[in-house]
Amino acid sequence: MTEETKETPKPIPAAAMAPQKPKARLRNADEDEKLADEKREQRRNFVKLSMTGFFVVLLLAFMRFFFPRTLTEPKTKFKIGTPADFGFGVDTKFQSSNRIWVVRNAEGLFVILAKCTHLGCTPDWKESENKFKCP
């Protein structure tokens, strides 16, 4: 063998060594339509679920007003004694248990609910000022 008959290796082109992009697969119109329908269905389900959740929360908030925040309701009828048991002035011994004041003056005997008319808080009897005061 002579030197002339030896083949010299040829370099591999750079394009052949580079990673090849996957060839795009062509879809037909039916597959495109099917994918579009699936996306539309997903959006529709999301909107349905969101609206259902919104209305459930709204309904629960509305239903909350039908149930009072108090654990027990105070009795509407109870006995406090006879009129002779109360002297002149304001008696506060029922303020904590029944939320009332018993007031006796020259005009008669009165029972007053210890509840503020504008905020619903419990006012106090200020004996030094001789009046009821809202905190």
Offer a few descriptive terms.
3 helices; 5 strands; 135 residues; three-stranded antiparallel sheet; alpha+beta; two-stranded antiparallel ribbon
How would you characterize the overall build of this protein?
- The protein is of the alpha+beta class and about 140 residues long.
- Helices cover about 30% and strands about 15% of the residues.
- The chain has helices at about 15, 30-65, 95-100; strands at about 90, 100-105, 110-115, 125, 130-135.
- The strands form two sheets. Strands 1-2-3 form a three-stranded antiparallel sheet.
- The protein is rod-shaped.
- The N and C termini lie far apart (about 120 Å).
Q: Which helices and strands, and how do they pair?
A:
Elements: H1 14-17, H2 29-63, E1 89-91, H3 95-98, E2 100-105, E3 108-113, E4 124-126, E5 131-133
Antiparallel strand pairs: 1-2, 2-3, 4-5
**Strand portion:** 15-25%
Q: Main sheet, how many strands, which sense, barrel? A: 3 strands, antiparallel
Give the strand order, joined by hyphens, for the main sheet: 1-2-3
Helical coverage, percent range: 25-40%
Poorly predicted ranges: none
Principal-axis shape? rod-shaped
| Overall strand count | 5
Broad structural category: alpha+beta
Oligomer: single chain
Order of helices and strands: HHEHEEEE
The radius of gyration over CA amounts to: 44 Å
Kindly report the average pLDDT value: 80
Intertermini distance: 118 Å
Number of helices: 3
Describe this structure in a few short sentences:
The protein is an alpha+beta fold and 135 residues long. It is 32% helix and 16% strand. The model has no long low-confidence stretch (mean pLDDT 80).
